[in-house]
Design a protein that fits this description.
3 helices, 2 strands, about 50% helix, mainly alpha, single chain
Length: about 70
């Protein structure tokens, strides 16, 4: 799978924070080198979901995102 720099950084961050949800603020601070909108983060998550699995990343309302680990 070919991932962009931001997609790869997001995936690494989600794994690093598992099982806790990863907040929008954490994604903004650790994935981007600049301030960005929640919409841009949502688009990044959507892009990553399309490449790995739509069900792999879940939204935790009001908290951020979490990656589901397969057992």
């Amino acid at each position: 799978i070919s991932l962009s720099k931001h997609e790869r950084s997001l995936l690494e961050l989600l794994f690093k924070n598992t099982p806790a949800p990863t907040s929008y603020e954490s994604i903004e601070n650790e994935v981007y080198d600049f301030s960005t909108s929640k919409n841009a983060i949502k688009l990044l998550v959507k892009s990553l979901r399309n490449k790995i699995s739509k069900d792999a990343i879940s939204n935790i309302s009001g908290l951020g995102y979490n990656i589901k680990l397969m057992s």
